Amino acid sequence: MTLAFLNLSWPVVANGFEFGGIYALMAVGIGLVFGVLRLVNFAYGQLIMAGGFALAYGAQWGLPTWVSILFCFGVVLALSLVLDRLVFRPLRTHSPAVMLVATFAVAFLLQNIALIAFGPYGKTAGSLGYLNAPWDIGGVEIKKIAVIAVVTAAVALVLLQLLLTRTSLGLHMRAASMDFRTAQLLGVRANRVIAGAVVVSALFAVVAAVLMTVAVTPQVTYDFALANTIIVLAGVVLGGLNRPIPATLGGFSIGFASGILSGALPSAQTQYLPSILFAAVIVILLLRPNGLFTRGAGALERV
């Protein structure tokens, strides 16, 4: 069964939704930290890499899947809090450029530590490989992971919206994202808000790591999720950097486009996929410099 006007099969469209869901989760984690700290965290992919290695060791040790996922969350959360305490907190009073360079340094440091510790071939996290099996939906075979990725992204976004609108921590995060210094003067506890953002962001990184070991590759290497993170960062800017929902929509959009094009292009031409995506991003930003899903002239805050 095909979509005649696009000459695409339904499984390829499902692949687009699969990548869109995963990239949306990554975009939420990146956008949330930027909203609170005004920090574009280029090391977010390395958090996902650490989660992937944790899953691989969980499978190697024969742990149940749910225990491996908890172990993954513990590793990513601990690493996030350590980086915030040792690197990002001392630099918060410095310029955004200093913070940006710090995230680059952290990213490449963690990447090289993983290369030294685990070698170029890494570890295999294959305990959830059965999710690549197809479901028959209306006569169309769709991989289970495609449905799970979309549902997970939707549920996560709803829960995040409830957190931001129905809890005191969420309200403080929203206030901090609008004006951090004024929010502090009004009684918002900075460290509590930042810790909350770090924890929630780490949770999204864990979910992304679990899904990527199924949807992308079970082989976790030192550069695991690196290319995906760069694409997601472009999507976050495309959607609107300082609001969770526009950032999420931007991540979903570029993930959907990536999944569609990777399935539609002949295998010999998939090397052109990054060029196509980033050329499209440049054109869209020239037309909508504040972001595709934001309103108002000052919606995007420059870093």
Fold and architecture overview:
With 303 residues, the protein is mainly alpha-helical. The protein has a domain at 16-225. It has 11 helices and 6 strands. A hairpin with a 2-residue loop joins strand 4 and strand 5.
Brief summary of the model shown:
The chain is mainly alpha-helical. Helix content is 69%, strand content 5%. It is built from eleven helices and six strands.
SSE order and pairing:
Blueprint: E1 2-3, E2 8-9, H1 10-37, H2 44-60, H3 65-88, H4 96-118, E3 123-124, E4 134-137, E5 140-143, H5 144-166, H6 168-178, H7 180-185, H8 190-215, E6 219-220, H9 226-239, H10 244-264, H11 273-287
Antiparallel strand pairs: 1-2, 3-6, 4-5
Helix pairs in contact: 1-5, 1-6, 1-8, 1-9, 1-10, 2-3, 2-4, 2-8, 2-9, 3-8, 5-6, 5-8, 6-8, 9-10, 9-11
Features:
single chain, 303 residues, mainly alpha, two-stranded antiparallel sheet, two-stranded antiparallel ribbon, 5% strand, globular, disordered C terminus
Mean pLDDT: 82
Low-confidence stretches: 1-6, 297-303
Helix content bin: 55-70%
Whole-angstrom Rg:
19 Å
Q: How many helix segments?
A: 11
Identify the overall geometry. Answer: globular
Distance between termini? Answer: 46 Å
In terms of DSSP E residues, the strand content is 5-15%
Order of helices and strands: EEHHHHEEEHHHHEHHH
Backbone structural class: mainly alpha
Total number of beta strands: 6
Side by side, the strands of the main sheet go 1-2
Question: Biggest β-sheet, characterized?
Answer: 2 strands, antiparallel
